[in-house]
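Z., the sequence and structure:
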Amino acid sequence: MRFASPEFLWGLFSLPLFALLFLYAFHRRKRLSARFVSLPMLPKLSTSVSLWRRVLKMSLLLLAIALLWVALARPQWGRKMEYYERKGLDLVLLQDISLSMLAEDVKPNRLVRSRHEIAAFLESLKGDRVGLVAFSGEAQVMVPLTLDYGTVQMILKELSPGWLMPGTNLAAAIEKGIQMFQGAGNAGKYSVMILMTDGEEHDAQAVEAARKANELGIRIYTIGIGSREGVPIPEKTKNGEITYKKDRYGNIVTTRLEEPTLQAIAGATGGLYYYANPGEFQLQKVLTEIAALEKKEHSSGQLETYQDRYQIFLVCVLALLLSELLISERSRPRKKNAGRFE
């Protein structure tokens, strides 16, 4: 026999404490009774109370607690063979962290909303490897392809503008994603990029990079974040006050979503473009879309597993508790034999 969660066995050391609590309750009940009846008279008035029955009830409770700790430790014995197969896609998330992502047309701002939506997106994945690329004026691989979604979420929370060169270089992000797939030896029809940005790039390099990805069989889905009308970009001063970004002439700089580039990137690879409006971010629609794609088999085989037997102990716990409830502390009064002349 083995235990899957042996740390719960430490709970068995709590049994002496429970025993002391039961004894304390017994003596407290006796003291409360003495308030109404003198101690010399108490034994005469409580002759029906059986000491051994009280001891038995306490023993049953202690045994039930002990078996409960054993059940929580998940005892296992016996083995069985299970066949497993893991299929999935390789997904690279391209997250824009340029200064314009601080615009608050999507609450609380574009970047924070992106992080929240990606976290929910990761919780819906099963068997897909995920990588993360952050970009602004340059691109950087933050997490290589992995099944450890927790690590991706942890790094994602730390992303903020100012880490990389200013600007928005979509082409660099796509190139970095291609390199990640090629480095893992998996560029092809099982490779997908999801680009989240406000799309403020005004040259054709990004579309050319998308065509290169298409030649390798990589599909790109783009999500446009932000308002189609210009909105200001908030900045914090050294004093912690909120102001808005201005150009060298003192005019407030505005940012707006550039959809044509994002539509062209997605169209070049057979992917789709989604507009993330304030009420719906669209990542779940991307998840629905990629769920229909053919999955690559990452691994398969047979796995020998132990069988859980904690159910047996839980049944015993219930039986002991039920027995404790049914046993009375009072013994049945003995019937006196009636005499012939009574």
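The domain at 90-294 is CATH 3.40.50.410 (Rossmann fold). The chain has a mean pLDDT of 80.

Let me know what you think.
H.
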